[in-house]
Amino acid sequence: MLCKLILETNVLIVTLDAAKVGGADQLQSYASIAGIQFRAISTGSELANIVQKETEFDFIFVDTAGVPMYNVNAINNLSNTLDVIDISQKYLLVQASLSKSALQDTISAFKKIQPTAVIVSKIDETTKYGELVEVLAETGLPIAYIANGQAIPDDIEPADKAKIMNLIIPDFCGSGGENAG
Fold it and tell me: CATH fold of 1-87, please?
């Protein structure tokens, strides 16, 4: 939505998420509010067709169903579905409150999909971020966005070093969010 609202680009949101009851409807509502085109599809071939034919869009965002990290078949199916198109950015959503081992397992399970960055959700539900940062540093995956609450899209924001440092070391940033020192 940021691309549409800030950059004033032509955006299409496509969802492959038929598993979550009402998920496509909710995403369609958000897209409608932001004035973004929306399509719900169910196959990789439909996705490839949209990407090939919908050349007027500057960005096409693809939402997929949540896949359990221990369901290898579901991850393989998701990977095969996404392999039909060239995707420049793939974001893996991880919860800030996960333990180090759960984060490592999650990232390892989704390696086949080749995420380029992570979106960290539930920042507001923990106060310990060291293990998250440690695991991401080990994997080399950058944090693209952080989600700090339930108000979408208002609580989703681009990650930056000062915000991340302030999570790890409270008061790293002085008042007003500027770097101290």
Answer: Rossmann fold (3.40.50)
Residue type, 146: I
Nearest CA among 4, 73, 78 for reference residue 38:
4
**Residue matched to tokens 């989704």:** 110
Average pLDDT, the chain: 82
Q: Where in the chain are all domains bearing CATH 3.40.50.300?
A: 1-87, 89-181
- Stated pTM of the model: 0.76
Q: What does residue 147 show for φ and ψ, rounded to 5 degrees?
A: -120, 125
Per CATH, domain 89-181 is 3.20.20.60: no
Q: Is residue 123 pLDDT above 60, yes or no?
A: yes
SS (H, E, C) the chain: CHHHHCCCCCEEEEECCCCCCCHHHHHHHHHHHHCCEEEECCCHHHHHHHHHHCCCCCEEEEECCCCCCCCHHHHHHHHHHHCCCCCCCCEEEEECCCCHHHHHHHHHHCHHHCCCEEEEECHHHCCCCHHHHHHHHHHCCCEEEEECCCCCCCCEEECCHHHHHHHHCCCCECHHHCECC
What gap in Å lies between CA 38 and CA 63, rounded to an integer? 11
pLDDT in tens, 12-69: 888 887 666 667 888 888 888 888 899 998 888 898 999 889 889 888 888 887 888 8
